[in-house]
Amino acid sequence: MFVLSIFLPLLSYVVCIFLNNVVREKILNFVSCALMVFSTISSIISLIFFYLEGDKSFIITNWISSGSLNVDWSLNLNLLTVTMIIMVNFVSTIIHVYSVGYMSKDPRRIIFMGYLGLFTFFMLFLVSSSNLIQLFVGWEGVGLTSYLLIGFWSHKDEANKASLKAFVANRVGDFGLLISLFTIFIVFGTININEILLLVNSHSQSYFSFFGFQIHSITLIVVTMFVGCMGKSAQFGLHVWLPDAMEGPTPVSALIHAATMVTAGVFLLILMSPLIETSKFSQNLILFIGTITCLFASCVAVFQNDIKRIIAYSTCSQLGYMFMAIGVSAYSVAYFHLLSHAFFKALLFLGAGSVIHSMSDEQDIKKMGGIYNRIPLTYTSMLIGSLALMGLPFFSGYFSKDLILEFIYLSDSDLKVFAFITGIFGVFLTALYSSRLLITVFHRENNSDEKVFAHIHESPIIMIIPLVILAFFSIFFGMIFHNFFAGSSLETIWSKFMFIDSETNQAYSYGNVPKFMKKLPLVMILLSLITVFLFYFKFPRTKQLVKDKLNFIVKFFYNKCYIDELYEKVIIKPSKYLGRGFWKSIDIDLIDNLGPNGISRFISSLGSKVSNLQSGYLYHYVLSVIIGLTLFISIYIYIF
Amino acid sequence: MINLPILPILIALPLIGLVFIFLSSEEDENAEQSKKSALWTSASNFVLSLYLPINFDKSIPHFQFVNTFSWFNNDSLRFSLGVDGLSMPFIILSTFLILACIIFILPQAKKNMKMYLASFLVLESFLIGTFSALDLFSFYIFFESILIPMYLIIGFWGGERRIYSAYKFFLYTLLGSVLMLIAIIFLYQEFGTISIPKLLDYTLPFYIQIWLWIAFFSSFAVKIPMWPFHTWLPDAHVEAPTEGSVILAGILLKLGGYGFIRFNLSILPDASIFFTPFIYFLSVVAIIYTSYIALVQDDMKKLIAYSSVAHMGFVTLGIFSANIQGLHGAIIQMISHGVISAALFFSIGSIYNRYKTKRIDFFGGLNIKLPKFSVVFLIFTLGSIGLPGTSGFVGEYLTLLAVYSKNTMVAFISTLGVILSASYMLKLYKRVFLGGLSENLDKKKDDINIYEICLYVVLVILIFIIGIKPGLILSYTTASLERIIQFYPISIF
After folding, report:
1. In this structure, are residues A441 and A368 in contact, taking their beta carbons and an 8 Å threshold?
2. Residue A487 has pLDDT above 80, yes or no
3. Nearest CA to B262 among B338, B309, B200, B313?
4. For an interface test with B, which of A14, A18, A20, A66 has the most B Cβ atoms less than 10 Å from its Cβ?
5. In degrees to the nearest 10, what's the CA dihedral of A39, A134, A326, A557?
6. CB under 8 Å to B108, separation ≥6 — which residues?
7. Is A132 exposed, middle or buried (0-12, 13-18, 19+ CB in 10 A)?
8. How many Cβ pairs closer than 8 A exist between chain A and B?
């Protein structure tokens, strides 16, 4: 069952790619969705099996065996993997169904469905793998499918650039992960996840010689691994690819760049949580980067005008929250936020897709407005998604995000004040950009073309059903499941699968958080909503004022803090310059001219000089004979 | 087991095919008859070469299928052939790639087609000879004779600057080999034997090892090629015809790697340890330096040629880290590069045959015109990048792991090559295949023909098989490699 739940999406890919143009489209659409449904069902069944039989490893076959390095193709079934697999399969199924409607006018829609299947497979493979090298296969595999899907509309130059950028930025992260894998093998002598976690304690004091320095080996492992996670989960510094990735079709943004792939970094760190616990430095680093990302991305989100980019930056900042939770050892809470975020962010993206669909492919929110009564279902789902994202009470974001803030409050981390204040401020910003999005898109007067406005229509039923299902989970997921991820039952459920900080958890269960602190996020949300309300409805003129007076700040954040430009100047331009320099001046000028060409020139010039000696005059020859004889005789006499 | 003299047969068979080609009296550019005989010869040679892995005993580290003939009626100068786990995969690779080249030639027309086919058959015979030679003398003869058909292929059927490139190629490699010849003569004079299995049992004094090591190095470093001896490669590739590039990148470069393992590493262990930092330095420079150069190339073949130098950098890293992971990695990397670079050069050949140019600027949006081909090319590109699951990954991973255990800085810097390779290969793919259709191309759809499809499907399957089950190759090599690394300090078991 478990194996099925992972390989059925691959089957869907194979079917879609090889039977494209052979079998009728409708059948293929149906088959790929049906396979996904089966896959979801079998993953739920494997959860039942897990309860009956406990965790288990499925070894498929041997992969690499070289000396003591033994890598199998194998799958791990435990609570952490199986719940993640259910989420991935479930969201993927919904997005498969949605795509049937969304892509219905695209000539390559079947291939699109195939790619979705392939992506799902790699994601499941990543999640379920029992060793880190196989995890790396899934890790790069989702990067590949993300590359393919961002660049799906390959006639658009922007899309091609974005896909290339995504792949390369991810590769920078993968570079870190590779170093981490090498170190793990040399320190632990194995790359099997379960074995590593067993061995953590015996290596917690070991040192590793890196560049000639003795470095705490687990710190090195975790820091380099975190670089990989930064790439995949778009943390500050390596986040540049995620907003550009919005060039891909919207279902892709929902599935890959919101719900599943970008959370892989968080998932990996949760999986390796006992490792992280032994290194204080890396915990602080993770907390710091997460906090910075959270702040930076939500600031930028406030000033963006592209509906998908706003949500993309919001994803960035939410991932920042998850890393903050990891930085304070609240792994279960991070995981909780990961799951709930998957639902409401997928909902937001699909809702945005539905808006874009009804606005004839318009993405600029400045050109929308006043359409809430034209597309009521889409509006409702966007509203639910936004409320869940803000963390309004009783929506799922409320439970998960507030838990993170409370755990930060309770933790004993060095950076906790900084993180907590930023986290609270992040809540304010989240509410700010979400409500700005809702108001500019749905309320306000309309700013679009008349043609477009006349054409606005609710999306077909096949796109609405997924929205409804996701909306249901965005509302209720947190409410139903929050007891599983924090509080008294936490340890009995999760302690085998991730590190649980029982002290903080106990403090939490005893209600050690002051009432005031608990209410702070809500206060922030309300404050933010009031600001937005005043800004847009009561004092619309302040807007112009802000634009004039604070132009610098607006521009700074609108241009994403000029990080792309910085990279272009610091990395890309010099690389090209370097390449050209190596090629023209070293390869051609130095090596070739000194080497083969130089030698051949030398020989031919030597030849012409030597041939000058053959002058044909007798006295030249006689002279050289005499010189030669004298030389030989004098040498002879000298020696003997 | 029947005692078939399989290696002499493998060497002789292409020469028999040669007779058939010259017997036919056709003179036109198509030369159907000759093509057929070349196809049959190379196909049967490939099938016959599969006899080796089937009957190979994996547990024996020594040479198998040994045949010995006397040479000059002298007991110490004997001509003997045999394979071990190290050379066997390369023989299969050679017979496979020659067959692939012949298949690729089938639909084409070329001036002097008979000679062209004949060159490839001769090349095949010499290649097998080089990989199976068990004495230094015949190794040297085969190793050098390969230059002759290759020189003809580049100089006769090549592009505009073919004469310059062919000379550069010939002189560069010949110059390197002269020192090797001196080393071989020295070995014979000193120890009275040129048999490789016997030399494996000798322990030479350190100061002699150093000189011999340099002599062998100069020959193989040019061949593989290492920085800074690589400048012949881009020129040779750009001017060579498609099939020539395939053989050059697919097998000829591997002669260098094979030589390094067979001679420098096996016979001269002390000198190898002494020179390891030097090799590390050259390899790291090769990986980073050529990757940067590849980023700014305008010619597809030149780009792949530079990337080959970078890939070979991983091979030398793996070889001289001298542990089982490193050697396994180096061998997989060589085989994988043999398949992938061959595939890429075939693909560029397919493009060149259609549009008569290899300039990257000329193209754009080719995936609209050649949809199936663009998928295939993407897979080759990914293989070259070393995406896990393809063969490229296994080689890179194992070699880097092996180096990491010896020297973290070297491994760290070389791992940066992983980022660079993704940049230049995907940039190539983007510029040629993606985007709007270039103005230079017409709208007409025209996809790859049946010969190409067959070839590419086989190559794609190979890339995945090696990537998913590298053990199919590695299991043959383990015993022989363990015998080599026993001379070295252990880093990873």
Report:
1. yes
2. no
3. B200
4. A66
5. -90
6. B353
7. buried
8. 143
Chain B CB contacts of A167 under 8 Å are 422, 426
User: What pLDDT does A85 receive?
Assistant: 92
What's the sign of the alpha-carbon dihedral A414, A417, A423, A425?
A: negative
Report the share of chain A in percent with pLDDT over 90. Answer: 27
- Chain B hits for A137, Cβ within 8 Å: 388-389
Residue B27, phi then psi, degrees to nearest 5? -120, -5
Measure in Å the smallest separation between the Cα of A36 and chain B Cα atoms: 23
CB burial of residue A59 (10 Å; 0-12, 13-18, 19+): exposed
Q: Which residues, 6+ apart, have CB-to-CB distance to B329 below 8 Å?
A: A66, B314, B318, B394, B395, B396, B397, B398, B399, B400, B401, B402
Q: Contact A231/A176 with Cβ under 8 angstroms?
A: yes
Task: Report H helices in B29-112.
Answer: 32-49, 51-55, 88-105
Angle at A270 between CA A264 and CA A273, to 5 degrees: 140
Q: Using pLDDT thresholds of 50, 70 and 90, give the confidence band for residue B1.
A: very low
State how far the Cα of A610 lies from the Cα of A616, in Å rounded to an integer: 13
**Cβ contacts (< 8 Å) between B433 and chain A: which residues?**
154
Query: Is the ipTM of this structure higher than 0.95?
Result: no
Cα–Cα distance for residue pair A161/A155, rounded to 1 Å:
11
What residues are paired with A66 via a beta bridge?
A: A69
What residues contact B107, with CB distance under 8 A and at least 6 apart?
B449, B451
CA distance B10 to A586: 43
pLDDT tens for B381-419 read: 999 998 998 998 999 999 999 999 888 899 999 999 889
Q: Which is higher by pLDDT, A170 or A546?
A: A170
All residues of chain B having their beta carbon less than 8 Å from the beta carbon of residue A140 are 387-389
Cβ-based neighbour number of residue B97 at 10 Å: 26
Mean pLDDT of B280-294: 91
CA distances from B437 to A111, A380, B430, B431, B448 (A): 20, 42, 12, 11, 18
Q: Which residue has the tokens 């750009």?
A: B238
Of the candidates B295, B398, B400, the beta carbon closest to that of A66 is on B398
Q: Are A160 and A151 in contact (CB under 8 A)?
A: yes
Contact yes or no for B292 and A575 at CB 8 A: yes
Cross-chain residue pair A164–B427, CB shorter than 8 Å: yes
Q: Taking each helix axis as running N to C, give the angle between helix B471-485 and helix B88-105, from 0 to 180 degrees, rounded to the nearest 10.
A: 140
Q: Considering only the beta carbons, identify the residue of A67, A168, A596 that sits closest to B325.
A: A67
pLDDT, one tens digit per residue, over B248-276 is: 999 999 999 999 998 888 888 889 999 99
Residue A209 to residue B325, Cβ atoms within 8 A: no
The C-alpha of A188 sits at a distance from chain B's nearest C-alpha, in angstroms, of: 12
Q: Which residue of B has its CA nearest to A577?
A: B296
Q: What confidence tens digit (pLDDT) does each residue in A89-126 have? A: 999 999 999 999 888 888 888 889 999 999 999 999 99
B468–A68 C-beta distance less than 8 A: no
In A, which residues are within 8 Å of B423 by CB distance?
Answer: 164, 168, 171, 575
CA quadruple A618, A622, A628, A629: dihedral positive or negative? positive
Give the mutation candidate from B168, B397, B420 for the A interface (greatest A CB count, under 10 A).
B397
> Minimal Cα–Cα distance from B222 to chain A, Å?
12
pLDDT of residue A56: 84
